[in-house]
UniProtKB/TrEMBL annotation:
Descriptive protein name: Serine/threonine protein kinase
Record organism: Blautia ammoniilytica
CDD domains: STKc_PknB_like
Leader sequence residues: none
UniProt lineage: Bacteria, Bacillati, Bacillota, Clostridia, Lachnospirales
GO terms for MF: protein serine/threonine kinase activity
Gene3D superfamilies: Phosphorylase Kinase, domain 1, Transferase(Phosphotransferase) domain 1
Length: 528
């Protein structure tokens, strides 16, 4: 088997098995061993031309090896576009991170191998194999990928191939979007539209070869959610038949592409069905118009804020730009505000405007002082650009950042940094009981408690920054919970086993009890 595997261009990484194929390449699992511990990456290899037959075919059409080489060189440049696209998303918790890449040109023939090394993640198909996801789990997936599309929108990128095979799951339970092999910048796509992607999840206008925009990604994500809530069956495929034939798939595709109305997915409640069917609307103008709008619909449902028809007000502007600027209790603000400003204050009487403005100014000052104190507490050098901008701009009136969201993102960055540095840490303890990891300054950065040593029979992982707990990961093979702490040891976010986010619910007994419990457990790990 090893003889069939390619060699890695990174000496420290050894390719050990093939794990799949993307749009334009093969993907392998690679390992690196340091001080007796093993770490993994995914390496994607794109070969151009793809086969000797492809090379010969172009030689028949184009005379001269220089012209043939130029033709394939252009394809290489297009593939590098995937790398540059994904490098723009580095550090994003909902898009697969590219760590390195190399291009190797053949010496004796026209050809190239492009190696792209990425973070090693669990494929979504492997993650959900043999189990049915709950509606809350599917909602979390939908929100995570809607946020990924939000970042794509910021860079004017259409993914064009959203499907389960291009979804991955991180160590911390985040769903990530990968394989931008056929993604192109929106401006380029508009001038040369092409019908690429997977027909099973493709939007009708894209299938027909008509001009399209980023709403095709919203449609594809909607079809993915439909399938997950419909016993794994796409629209118009029978749930009763065990064996689905090629003709069945063709007939189902024809119905969807002709605009036949979709019936609600069987396991989604009425509210979630409404969201999914809107995302999958045949006409683009009837879908969600932005990823943010799609995200907030799912977030409202997950947190019980879904409006009834009688409660909805006429909308003169998109909800993302108006109602979302108002604070909502227990709202997990994962998106940066698209627009901010004292619109609500302007509609109040003059006296209240003055008081509100004073409160806002005080809040901005407190935000800056708090962020400064975080920096002084030896937090990571890799800060959110929003935090840096606050410190560089001494005008409190321009500080529009939501400090709570910034702290959450900083916590995620800290956790990722510690995971990356574990190979260089000293490991103390015994597997099956408890392992502790110390950095080069002999500071405890992580503790792993095995179920046999846990009072609750679960895995308990505690992550420390400057020997303070900031993140706890409690999990078993079937469920997981995440806890985020501020630098004072106060729980500020709890994501429960159903994927529901609880933010700063200090009025909840259960929320406070759990926060204190794991904070106390983390402190006990300093005892020898």
């Amino acid at each position: 088997m090893d003889k069939e595997l390619p060699a890695s261009v990174w000496p420290e990484w050894k390719i050990i098995e093939k794990i799949g194929e993307g749009s334009f390449g093969r993907v392998y699992k690679a390992e690196r061993t340091e001080q007796g511990r093993t770490f993994y990456s995914a390496i994607k290899i794109i070969t151009i031309p793809g086969s000797p037959d492809e090379l010969n075919s172009i030689r028949e059409e184009i005379s001269g090896d220089d012209s043939v080489r130029e033709y394939f060189q252009n394809l290489v440049d297009e593939c590098i576009q995937e790398v540059s696209t994904m490098e723009c998303f580095r550090g994003n918790s909902h898009i697969v991170s590219v760590e390195d890449y190399k291009v190797v040109e053949y010496l004796d023939e026209i050809g190239w191998d492009i190696y792209i090394r990425m973070e090693y993640l669990i494929s979504f198909t492997e993650y959900c194999a043999g189990k049915a996801l709950t509606q809350n789990e599917v909602l979390k997936l939908g929100r995570d990928l809607a946020k990924a599309l939000h970042y794509c929108r910021q860079l004017n990128i259409i993914h064009r191939d959203i499907k389960p095979e291009n979804i991955f799951v991180s160590y911390f339970g985040d769903f990530k979007l990968g394989d931008f092999g056929i993604a192109r910048e929106l401006e380029r796509s508009m001038s040369n539209m092409s019908k690429k992607g997977t027909y099973s999840y493709m939007a009708p206008e894209m299938y027909r070869g008509e001009p399209y925009d980023r709403r095709v990604d919203i449609y594809s994500l909607g079809i993915v959610l439909y399938k997950l809530m419909n016993d794994g069956r796409l629209p118009f495929l029978s749930r009763e038949k065990q064996l689905i034939t090629y003709r069945d798939k063709e007939n189902a595709l024809a119905k969807r592409m002709s605009g036949e109305e979709l019936i609600p997915p069987v396991h989604a409640d009425q509210a979630f069905s409404t969201i999914i069917l809107k995302a999958c609307a045949y006409r683009p103008e009837e879908r969600y118009q932005t990823p943010e709008e799609f995200y907030y619909a799912m977030d409202d449902l997950l947190h019980g804020r879904m409006e009834t028809d009688s409660e909805k007000k006429p909308k003169e502007k998109p909800a993302v730009e108006s109602e979302r600027s108002k604070p909502v209790k227990k709202h997990s603000k994962l998106f940066d505000k698209i627009k901010s400003g004292p619109d609500e204050v302007k509609r109040r009487p003059a006296l209240w405007s003055v008081l509100a403005a004073g409160i806002a100014l005080a809040a901005c000052i407190i935000t800056i002082l708090y962020v400064r104190s975080m920096l002084e507490e030896n937090l990571p050098l890799r800060k959110s650009s929003q935090v840096v901008s606050i410190l560089e701009e001494n005008d409190t009136h321009t500080a529009q950042v939501d400090d709570f969201s910034t702290v959450i993102e900083t916590i995620k960055q800290q956790a990722s940094e510690i995971v990356n540095e574990l190979p260089d840490c000293q490991e103390v303890g015994k597997k099956g009981e408890r392992l502790r990891y110390y950095d080069q300054n002999n500071k405890l950065v992580k503790t792993l408690i095995y179920p046999e040593m846990s009072d609750d029979g679960v895995y308990e992982e505690y992550y420390y920054w400057d020997e303070r707990l900031f993140f706890a990961y409690i999990w078993t093979d079937s469920k997981q919970e995440l806890y985020y702490y501020d630098r004072r040891g106060k729980l500020i976010r709890w994501i429960d086993a159903d994927g529901i986010v609880h933010d700063k619910e200090t009025d909840s007994t259960e929320y406070n009890k759990r926060g204190e419990k794991y904070w106390k457990n983390s402190l006990e790990q300093f005892d020898e």
